[in-house]
Design a protein that fits this description.
Blueprint lengths: L20 H10 L2 H16 L8 H7 L6 H13 L13 H12 L4 H13 L4 H4 L3 H6 L6 H17 L7 H11 L3 H14 L1 H9 L10 H15 L6 H11 L5 H14 L3 H17 L3 H17 L8 H5 L7 H14 L5 H14 L8 H18 L4 H9 L7 H17 L4 H10 L7 H14 L3 H15 L4 H10 L5 H12 L4 E3 L5 E3 L2 H14 L3 H7 L3 H21 L3 H22 L10 H15 L5 H34 L27 H8 L9 H5 L2 E3 L7 E10 L2 E10 L5 E11 L2 E3 L6 E3 L4 E10 L5 E10 L5 E5 L3 E3 L5 E3 L4 H10 L2 E6 L7 H12 L2 E2 L12 E10 L4 E10 L5 E9 L2 H17 L5
Antiparallel strand pairs: 1-2, 3-4, 4-5, 5-9, 6-8, 6-10, 7-9, 10-11, 10-12, 13-16, 14-18, 15-16, 16-17, 17-18
């Protein structure tokens, strides 16, 4: 009998309608087939949940086992699987002899499907040697059955029995070799070959040597078995490696996609020959293009990416084939393929890749293109990366991308602005052409964010006199007539602006009273009122783009326009020799700024101008009015912002380089007892074989880093007091998405505690997986109980419960346990995202938790580090933006949970004159739980902080 019983799935049992044993016995004895099915189903559920009801074993044998109902037979197999088969002494129950006889009869049944179902059932009870031993002769006889379905199931049943008890089938290798030689069915051959490879690999290789030439024409399942045998044989020293390589080359052209994938993967483990690697990569690319399942596409692309990392320059020639994967409609597949393309791009193929991406970018403008906006954004970002990395292609793509500045899809246009801004900074030779193109496209822009980016570029990099005059002329066009307030007032009153409009008004008035024929055939009179009102409505819809934004309340864009005008005027004043012209340009710029402020304080805007924008524009007006008096201010406008942007780019490049260095450097830990490897004596290295058992171990957490003793002690929680009848403490261990509780119970009394039950309950997104069983603890004895709790989200959870046992005179005794608070920091990891992604998520997330700063710390930087450490969040604000000695600090932080939840935080603090730090931390997330939990975490950490000595 095994030391531990098998683990089954827990099935919910409705205790409100639990039938008695007598009722179940009556249903089994006298009920119809439907009643018997329902009764047997309830017995199985009760047995799984711990109530085995041994008194019903004999009625089931008497009244259910002889039935010919197929559903009853199938359900009966489930019952034989879960029912207790041994008595208290560990010996097989006598009733099991009848069960074995019934199973033998089913194995000899004339219906092949009953035989097959019974053979599959034997695999589930393969650990019960006493049950299986009498069935072995009948099981072996099924290998010669006329139906392939029975033979196929018999092979797998024998394999399962041999794996658990090799002594029951001592001649398994000879049996399978004989079976393979005589078998004609492909599926039976496949099962037998897998069995033979696991039992006696040399015999499987010997059979394979006789069918080398027929591998290509084999069935798909048999081809997969051949690939597995080749992989197993090559894991040791073998002389058949060249034949395996040739066979894998042939299987690359198989009709089955699964066979192609396995053959390509195996081929790279057998050899590192350039032709083999290219053939395997070509096969993987073909699979990624032709396979319809997007999940399979992602798996294949992952394998292709791993192959690229091992053979970097060998696969560069396949980059155009990988680009064909972009034809997939799924965005995840496109992103994965694009990341592979970007990593494979070099100076030799950069122009071809960019040309292909430009063609794809033009295709996204078609009406019927699937997910055009998301794909266009991905293409723009990819072209951005390539243009910065390969300067020779920047000039060819920047003009094409600027055509998308007027795109209705705002993220795509913003990506173009970010790309153009970086190109202008890094490639000075391209500045005149780019700024000229930007100037010509100002009228096509509609988004305030795009206007702000473009105006900043024009204000920073316009350095020629003629170019500045052209930009100022275009700005006059996109803002319209100034002063804005006066023009809007005249338009509202209907007063003509110019002589031409006055003549037009008189002309329309002269025609007043002319009859018009309406759509229904009746007559009507057209008046001047109707004409003027129509003109008023049309004028509202045809306002210049920047003017429409300002009237709509976007005064941030107005402030950026004021700064850009200030920079252009300052630079124009330095370059111009005609002082009257320079003064005229300065006056017009100041009039534009004043006009923005005045219209922002009027009734014509949807939202009044904010204080920050008003102060910013007034500062620009003051700078222009004192143009020759404050040279320091002029230098700030003309130099400092460009220097700050250059520092930001440098910080980004430094972070990217550090991240790449961390990813590329592999730490090789060598133990003192490791074998010495002599490079001259070692064989030529090939790609590592795919170890599925190792992958499974990593997925299930086997082989994780073992915590030290001190770390384990820090996770122990005391559940009861020292003076309680039972002392309890729990070791809490986080294991992926599970919480493992190892509870130690100590009986501190001189009495035996019977029917002791540890009852747990949870608050939050926690779920108890299994209920601990009932125990009996001897006087002053110990008992260890384990419980598993499933975690489904990042939210502060509480585990509470009690210990119940039977006291004297059958009274129930109880001890209430202390609460266990689950620390969400075990599920939150630091992460990074771009500024655009942060702003987008900040706008999208609806849950916000604001925590006021209350700390004894006196340094703003130290408080930022303290918050980052206590919340496991990373700082997104570049170090350069926080450098310098200042009493103000604002920083953005970001983290991501194991469940894919994003957590955003903004820290805004200042140091007062008394040295205290005041401010707040704003936390945003998509769900309420993580926002509240992080806020509580920050509040608790503030209480724990101590003032510096």
């Amino acid at each position: 009998m095994p030391a531990e019983g098998p683990c089954y799935t827990i099935v919910f049992e409705d205790n409100t309608e639990t039938p008695t044993t007598q009722e179940l016995r009556s249903a089994l004895e006298k009920g119809s087939d439907e009643d018997k099915l329902e009764a047997l189903r309830k017995i199985i559920v009760a047995t799984i949940n711990g109530n085995s009801q041994p008194g019903l074993l004999m009625p089931i044998i008497q009244y259910i086992m002889p039935s010919k109902n197929k559903q009853l037979k199938k359900l009966l197999h489930f019952y034989w699987e879960v029912c207790p088969k041994y008595d208290e002494n560990g010996k097989l129950k006598q009733e099991m002899i009848l069960v074995v006889n019934a199973i033998r009869n089913d194995l000899q049944h004339p219906n092949e499907y009953i035989r097959g179902a019974t053979l599959r059932f034997l695999q589930k009870i393969s650990r019960e040697a006493e049950l299986l031993e009498p069935l072995i002769p009948t099981l072996r006889a099924n290998l010669e059955h006329r139906h392939s379905y029975v033979r196929r199931a018999a092979v797998f049943a024998l394999q399962t029995v041999h794996r658990e008890h090799p002594s029951l089938v001592p001649d398994a290798a000879e049996l399978m070799q004989t079976f393979l030689a005589a078998e004609s069915d492909a599926s039976c051959k496949r099962n037998a070959l897998v069995f033979l490879a696991n039992v006696a690999l040399p015999r499987a290789v010997e059979w394979l040597r006789g069918v080398w030439d027929g591998i290509v024409g084999m069935d798909e399942g048999l081809q997969m078995a051949v690939v597995e045998v080749a992989r197993m044989d090559c894991a040791r020293e073998t002389t058949h490696r060249p034949k395996y390589i040739r066979a894998m080359f042939e299987l690359l052209g198989a009709t089955s996609h699964a066979v192609k994938y396995e053959a390509a993967t195996t081929l790279t483990t057998l050899t590192q020959n350039v032709a083999a690697v290219k053939a395997a990569a070509s096969c993987l690319v073909t699979l990624a293009i032709k396979e319809s399942d997007n999940n399979v596409k992602l798996i294949v692309l992952d394998r292709l990416d791993a192959l690229r990392e091992r053979h970097r320059h060998i696969l560069d020639g396949s980059i155009m084939d990988v680009l064909q994967v972009l034809s997939s409609a799924d965005m995840e597949v496109r992103r994965k393929a694009m990341s592979i393309v970007l990593s494979m791009t070099s100076g030799r193929n950069a122009e071809d890749v960019v040309l292909f991406l430009k063609k794809q970018l033009l295709r996204t403008q078609e009406q019927d293109f699937d997910k055009a906006s998301e794909y266009r954004q991905l293409l723009i970002q990819s072209i951005h990366v390539l243009a910065i990395r390969f300067s020779e292609v920047a000039a060819s793509v920047v003009h094409a991308l600027m055509d998308f500045l007027g795109d209705s899809n705002n993220p795509s246009a913003l990506d173009v602005v970010a790309f153009v801004r970086e190109v202008v900074e890094k490639f000075p030779a391209l500045r005149p052409a780019i700024t000229g193109k930007l100037t010509n496209t100002l009228m096509n822009m509609r988004s305030g964010k795009v206007f702000r980016g473009v105006l900043w570029i024009l204000g920073e990099y316009m350095e020629e006199l003629d170019a500045i005059e052209m930009v100022l002329a275009e700005i006059r066009k996109i803002i319209g007539e100034i002063p804005i307030l006066a023009a809007e007032s005249r338009e509202e009153e209907g007063t003509p602006h110019t002589d031409e409009e006055r003549d037009e008004r008189n002309f329309s008035g002269a025609g007043m009273g002319r009859p018009r024929v309406l759509a229904d055939g009746t007559y009507a009179t057209e008046t001047a009122f109707s004409v003027s009102s129509t003109r008023t409505e049309s004028s509202k819809t045809t306002k210049p783009p920047l003017r429409a934004l300002i009237l709509g309340g976007d005064f941030f864009t107005g402030a950026v326009l004021a700064v850009a005008l200030t920079k252009l005027v300052l630079r124009y004043d330095k370059l111009a020799s005609n002082r009257s012209k320079a003064n005229s340009v300065r006056a017009e710029a100041m009039l534009t700024m004043t006009s923005i402020i005045r219209v922002g304080q009027s009734k014509f805007v949807t939202v009044p101008i904010d204080e920050d924008s008003n102060e910013r524009i007034l500062g620009c007006i003051q700078s222009l009015s004192e143009l020759n008096d404050c040279q320091e201010v002029n230098e700030i406008f003309l130099m400092d912002s460009r220097v700050a942007y250059a520092q930001m780019l440098g910080a980004q490049e430094k972070r990217a380089a550090e991240k790449k260095a961390v990813e590329t450097v592999k730490e090789n830990v060598i133990q003192v007892d490791d074998l010495l490897t002599f490079r001259q004596l070692s064989k030529k290295s090939v790609d590592e074989a795919v170890d599925y058992l190792e992958d499974l171990g990593k997925a299930t957490g086997i082989g994780e880093v073992v915590e030290d003793f001190i770390s384990n002690l820090s996770r122990i929680s005391q559940l009861t007091g020292i003076s309680d009848p039972i002392y309890a403490e729990a070791y809490v261990k986080m294991h992926g998405f599970d919480i493992l509780l190892d509870v130690l119970l100590v009986n501190q009394t001189a009495n035996t505690l019977q029917n002791l039950c540890l009852d747990f309950a949870t608050l939050g997104d926690l779920k108890l997986v299994e209920r601990p069983t009932v125990h009996t603890i001897a006087p002053h004895g110990f008992q260890s109980i384990k419980a598993t709790i499933k975690v489904s989200s990042t939210e502060t959870g509480v585990i509470f419960g009690s210990i119940l046992w039977d006291g004297p005179n059958l009274t129930e005794c109880c001890v209430i346990l202390n609460d266990i608070h689950i620390d969400i920091m075990d599920y939150i990891k630091p992460a990074y995202c771009s500024e655009t992604q942060f702003r987008s998520m900040w706008t999208e997330f609806e849950w916000e938790n604001r925590v006021n700063v209350s700390t004894k710390m006196t340094e703003t930087r130290e408080y930022l580090k303290h918050v980052m450490k206590s919340t496991n969040m990373s700082c997104l604000t570049p170090e350069g933006a926080m450098s310098g000695d200042c009493d103000f600090l604002s920083a953005n932080m970001y983290a991501r949970s194991l469940f894919g939840e994003d957590a955003l935080a903004n820290l805004s603090i200042e140091k007062t004159e008394t040295g205290a730090i005041v401010g707040h931390v704003r936390i945003r997330s998509k769900t309420q739980g993580i926002a509240l939990s992080l806020g509580d975490r920050i509040t608790m950490s503030q209480r724990d902080t101590k003032p510096p000595l």
